[in-house]
Sequence to fold (190 residues):
Amino acid sequence: MKQERLRRKFTQQKVAQDLNVSRQTISSWETENSYPDISSLIRLSDYYQVSLDQLLKEDTGMTEYLKKQEILKNIKPIIWILTTIDILFLGFLILSMADIIELTSLVSIIIVSMGLLNVIAMITLVRFRNKVELKNNDKSKLFKTIPFLVVLSLIAVVILYFAGEYKFSGFFTGVFISLLVILIVKKRKD
Fold:
């Protein structure tokens, strides 16, 4: 982009005005600090009278960026599906603990197992999305709060057990074990 602009002896300000974006945006695109979305890319192609193919082949960073955007777009519905399953899992668990519905022990084990596996799948998928977005997973706020949640859920287990609330104690035992597994897996990967 910069080569085309310089070849035509345009300033960043002129290109920005013609494309109705800020000069900083043009600068950011040219220095590869950010990349144009697909509609801006088409406008740039028309503006400089250069094919999209040529623009993309000359800029590997932009090609990489567009590939990542496609991956992120495809991941989003999967995250929504997993979130919906997690909400249904929690709903069944809460209805069971409140004695609104009664689940057999086998069904309860299956639902809890599926819920825990789904939570692990969700965390794995979110970590993958963060890697694609180049976010630093080690600094993730979620993983900074897990040790706190492990301790909190253990306290809830003990208090609810001694209060005779065995269903709620069982629920928080599941939460405690899940968080502990996540924490152990995280530490092993580091």
